[in-house]
Design goal:
Blueprint: H1 5-12, E1 25-26, E2 30-32, E3 40-41, E4 47-55, E5 58-65, E6 73-76, E7 83-84, E8 88-91, E9 96-100, E10 106-111, E11 117-122, E12 128-132, E13 137-140, E14 148-149, E15 155-156, E16 160-164, E17 172-179, E18 185-189, E19 205-206, E20 215-218, E21 223-227, E22 233-239, E23 247-253, E24 259-265, E25 280-285, H2 289-292, E26 307-310, E27 316-319, E28 324-328, E29 331-338, E30 356-362, E31 364-365, E32 370-375, H3 379-387, E33 394-398, E34 401-405, E35 413-414, E36 421-427, H4 447-479, E37 501-502, H5 505-511, E38 518-521, E39 525-534, E40 537-545, H6 549-562, E41 573-579, E42 582-588, H7 595-599, H8 607-627, E43 632-633, E44 642-644, E45 650-652, E46 659-660, H9 692-707, H10 723-733, H11 744-747, H12 750-763, H13 774-781
Parallel strand pairs: 37-41
Antiparallel strand pairs: 1-11, 2-8, 3-4, 4-5, 5-6, 5-7, 8-9, 9-10, 11-12, 12-13, 14-23, 15-20, 16-17, 17-18, 18-19, 20-21, 21-22, 23-24, 24-25, 26-27, 28-29, 30-36, 31-35, 32-34, 33-34, 33-36, 38-39, 39-40, 40-42, 41-42, 43-46, 44-45
Length: 800
């Protein structure tokens, strides 16, 4: 690793903090369950062990964070059997932890190995232990985790977390997080109410470390990572850089099935001494629980017949479709029940077609409930087919295909990546209308009125039946050629050495409906939205290049640069068309657009979300610079070229200006490339260009992420127009708060704000040799070592 001396010194001096001394709880000691009862605290007071009142007069024996207002529970003993007021927990003289109710009935919570227990202790790590005289832990709560994983806690093979059932229900829920004996770290849905996992269920998230995964680590720097037996890091789960010295950390398998890493600042959380209202989420897996679960059995994220949609807070929101309501109104994850009588399948029944109708929902599907599929049909045909089929509860229409679905409906989701629309059947005469929608369907006042209405409907239907059939036939015949699904079964050819699909111009023209929907424009190209059904994808972005010399170079650069790459933070090139005058590139579609739209829009993105985008972008650049078989200099890193997928994972795109280096090359001479404000100084000095030009651009981008403003703002106050200059002035003055003045979440994390500003200043040094590599930048962002004091960026101007 090439490190400047200050980095090296800090790296060598990075040592773990030492453990704190603890107080002991003598044998025979006990605590009684009362509303304001006594507790056993850790030496620092960070954690407490005792009874927490969950509902009136019902208590949970638990360990919790004791210094914050929320008193967050991290471990419990009796989630499925809350005890009454007056119950008692005692460390018995024979070394057991015994819970007894007011009637004297006893339950052993912990039985230590052997009979050598000398005391109990609530440790500052959050671990409650029964220990021997020589401080050996004979039993510890860390070995019996519930839903929470804490820093320094061991998580070895066969260790598991079980989600609670709901926010205030501590019985076992429907999700399990486990490091399997085969080394794979996975999250499953369970066979609720059992804790077991069906062999027919696949994990909805997995590390894919078969045979190598050995232990999950949660270190005191706040980083969670999976290691092999030889201590090699296999995968980083969360890379929050908030040290446990200044922040509380916990990782939880939440009741909604998402494994989240939470942080909470110590010492109040703000300069005014007021406590932060809630924990901040540093990382979540999976990023979208609604789309992650695809098992063919089980109730999914929100229960049977329900729909899951990711909210603005990145948490799943459960809802019921029209005609359905929650099974348990107090628990939105309980699933939904049908509020109307289903269509009868008995021949000559009274259930005529006009008693049911279809309610449309865009980007909505229950993908695991299909029982029949039809291709090359239109939406009207799909709708009528479901209305006429007594088994059909919902039909899904998309790309000229129609899928029929039956009850119970599984794994429902509303998401832009779904595309298409759900056609939901409901009974019109007792429909439950969603809140805020007036029911304009008249209900008959009595049975005679109902009979007359039904008879009228039948007569009317008979009189127009032939006309309708004729119109439908005519429409189908006219549109048949237009509804053929765009399905690419196999590429005609691939680019040499690359796994890219080659499309014909006609295929792309049809996929974009004649280049109908424009979603972006560049100097030499226009980007269109399209739909091409192959593998597990449908939506794509098609970049159509103008036929000019510059565009021809851009086309070759882009195919060459990104065609051989494979990284989650680089936009994936799926294929291309190079047919006569037509040059087009087909990319994966990014439903959340560019970082520029996200960052400089009307609403401010959350602090931790912006930092995760910084981490991902840094990792993508590190891959391009140091891990690709052919080193790539992007040359145009800016928010417009960072795209965001459905979980806001950043992906570096637009490689039209990229420069490829040969194996033995570290620098190159080329004309000025890039965008004003992000271009490194050496472009203007006839100096050789290296990967450090991307480091400079990333430094500017990082400041934009920190401050949530553009690198140049004409209307800003004097001295503040150029972001890089203003940031360094604030750094010299030690006034970091002004950079995040209107960002309360960032102001609660000033240690990190200062760290990231210092990293950015190292990146924007005028002298490229002073800039760290992207590997070092990534390590500093993730907290692998401290950030040295950066010099003035203009202190090392090279004279040419």
């Amino acid at each position: 690793m090439d490190l400047p001396l200050p980095f090296l010194l800090i790296f060598l001096g990075f040592l773990p903090s030492s453990a704190m001394s603890q107080g002991n709880i003598s044998l025979g000691s006990s605590i009684t369950a009362t509303s304001n009862g006594s507790v056993w605290e850790s030496a620092s007071g960070d954690f407490a062990f005792g009874f927490k009142e969950i509902t009136d007069g019902a208590f949970l024996l638990a360990v919790w964070f004791n210094k914050i207002p929320e008193k967050t529970i991290v471990w419990w003993a009796n989630g499925g059997n809350l005890v009454q007021r007056g119950s008692k927990i005692q460390v018995t003289r024979d070394g057991r932890l015994v819970l007894s109710d007011p009637d004297g009935q006893q339950f052993s919570i912990a039985v230590a190995a052997g009979n050598n227990v000398s005391y109990a202790a609530m440790l500052d790590t959050g671990n409650f232990v029964l220990a021997s005289e020589n401080t050996v832990n004979l039993w510890q709560s860390f070995d019996q985790p519930t839903d929470t994983f804490l820093p320094t806690q061991q998580f070895i093979k066969d260790s598991r977390l079980l989600a609670r059932f709901s926010v205030d229900n501590y019985t076992n829920g429907r999700f399990k997080f486990i490091l399997q004996e085969d080394g794979n770290l996975v999250i499953y849905t369970t066979e609720y109410p059992l804790d077991s996992v069906s062999s027919s269920k696949n994990a909805y998230w997995a590390s894919n470390t078969f045979g190598t995964g050995y232990q999950l680590m949660f270190n005191q720097s706040g980083i969670i990572y999976l290691i092999a037996q030889n201590k090699t890091i296999l995968q980083t789960i969360s890379s929050d850089t908030s040290s446990t010295a200044n922040f509380y950390h916990r990782a939880v398998l939440d009741f909604d099935g998402v494994f989240r890493h939470y942080v909470y600042p110590k010492a109040g959380g703000s300069s005014s001494g007021e406590w932060q209202e809630a924990w901040s989420v540093s990382a979540s897996i999976p990023s979208n629980i609604c789309t992650a679960i695809n098992a063919l059995v089980g109730s999914g994220a929100c229960g049977f017949n329900s729909l899951c949609q990711l909210g603005d807070d990145q948490r799943p929101k459960c809802q019921c479709p029209r005609g359905y309501s929650f099974l348990d109104p107090d628990n939105e994850m309980s699933g939904c029940i049908q509020d109307f009588e289903s269509q009868s399948c008995i021949k000559n029944s009274q259930d005529k077609d006009n008693l049911f109708d279809i309610y449309e929902m865009e980007n909505t599907d229950w993908p695991s409930s299909d029982y029949e599929k039809f291709v090359s049909v239109n939406e009207d045909w799909c709708r009528d087919s479901c209305l006429g089929d007594c088994f059909c509860a919902v039909a899904f229409f998309g790309d000229g295909n129609c899928w029929k679905k039956k009850l119970p409906l599984l794994n429902g989701r509303i998401d832009l990546s779904t595309g298409g629309k759900a056609l939901i059947k409901y009974r019109v005469n007792n429909d439950t209308v969603p809140p805020g929608v007036e029911n304009v369907i008249p209900n008959p006042k009595d049975s005679d009125d109902a009979t007359l209405l039904l008879a009228g409907a039948v007569l009317f239907g008979s009189s127009v039946l032939l006309i309708c059939l004729f119109l439908i036939y005519s429409y189908l015949k006219r549109t048949k050629s237009k509804v053929q699904p765009q399905s690419i079964q196999q590429p005609l050819a691939t680019a040499p050495g690359m796994n890219l699909l080659r499309f014909t111009y006609k295929e792309i023209e049809e996929a974009t409906n004649g280049f109908e929907e424009e979603i972006g424009m560049g100097a030499f190209a226009t980007v269109y939205k399209g739909s091409i059904q192959f593998e597990n994808r449908s939506l794509v972005a098609v970049k159509k290049l103008d036929k000019v010399v510059e565009a021809d170079k851009e086309f070759k650069n882009e195919v060459s640069a990104i065609g051989r790459t494979n990284h989650k933070n680089l936009l994936q090139l799926l294929g291309f068309c190079n047919e006569g005058p037509h040059q087009l590139l087909v990319y994966e579609f990014m439903c959340n657009g560019s970082l520029a739209d996200f960052l400089f829009g009307n609403s401010r993105p959350r602090w931790y979300q912006r930092m995760q985008i910084a981490f991902g972008t840094a990792r993508g650049l590190c891959y391009m610079h140091e891990e690709c078989s052919t080193q790539i200099i992007h040359c145009d890193i800016k928010p417009q070229n960072i795209l965001l997928d459905d979980s806001f994972t950043p992906k570096i795109g637009d490689f039209g200006l990229a420069k490829l280096l040969k194996t033995d090359q570290t620098r190159t001479i080329t004309n000025i490339r890039g965008t004003k404000g992000y271009v490194a100084p050496e472009w203007f000095k006839s100096m050789p260009i290296t990967v450090k030009v991307d480091v400079y651009s990333f430094g500017v981008l990082l400041l934009e992420l920190i401050c949530c403003r553009k690198n140049f703002e004409q209307e800003a106050e004097d001295g503040n127009m150029v972001l890089t200059d203003w940031a360094f002035d604030c750094y010299k003055a030690g006034n970091f708060k002004v950079l995040v003045e209107d960002d309360e979440e960032a102001r609660h994390d000033m240690v990190q704000v200062k760290r990231f500003v210092m990293i950015a200043i190292w990146c924007i040094q005028d002298d490229p040799s002073m800039r760290p590599t992207m590997k070092v930048v990534t390590q500093m962002l993730e907290g692998a070592f401290e950030v040295p004091t950066p010099p003035d960026p203009t202190s090392f101007i090279t004279v040419i």
